[in-house]
């Protein structure tokens, strides 16, 4: 709807409609094919000759659509724009009715109220939206999206949270009695205990939680970003034991093996610096540097 001369390219991926998740209507088609047909329909309704192409990319979703020319002359632009408005409103009505049916509302009653609501719109209201670029109330996202995956947090702040959580897990380990220690290797590496994300959050101060709350995924995202130290499984946080990690496959292509070798020892080993027992792996086997002299 930007302009008559607009062209478009779209690579459909996630199944979304204009106002929420896309609801399936045809069980004889796969979900992906049905959604592709819907995206193509949008192009046709908007007055485009829609062309379908398959990209040569390593993805299961690689069908794309291209709209390079219109199906109508410029003089009919206002008429087509009115059809687009009606199409968007019809999709919104379907989305609301489907949502209410799922949560247990009586579908017929709610559809009646929706029809009344749609019927109450005067022709003047419709002509106001016709010819405008966007629908009323549409709020586009900012040109520059704020990064909120914890990657832009200050390094000192992240390091402090990582150290606090690691110490919490290490100190949560149950104390072993002398009888338990008999016959056991006293040099056993302490992996600590696992705690739920809620339990970890309860031990962090309010300022830290407030800063993490503004990030997508919050605490869980920060811990997952620090893959070297933590493992988050089913909502529980563990200290990663690199002895249990699977060795890299020897059947990797030469290019991937070379890239893996180049990434070896490019960061300091957190366990070598901070863990009371040091790193669980010897220096040669650890993918991280045991001291600055090993950094590459």
From TrEMBL:
GO terms for cellular component: cytoplasm. It catalyses: uridine(44) in tRNA(Ser) + S-adenosyl-L-methionine = 2'-O-methyluridine(44) in tRNA(Ser) + S-adenosyl-L-homocysteine + H(+). It is found in: Cytoplasm. InterPro entries: tRNA_uracil_MeTrfase, Znf_CCCH. Residues 263-293 form the C3H1-type domain. PANTHER family: TRNA (URACIL-O(2)-)-METHYLTRANSFERASE-RELATED. This is tRNA (uracil-O(2)-)-methyltransferase. It comes from Mystacornis crossleyi.
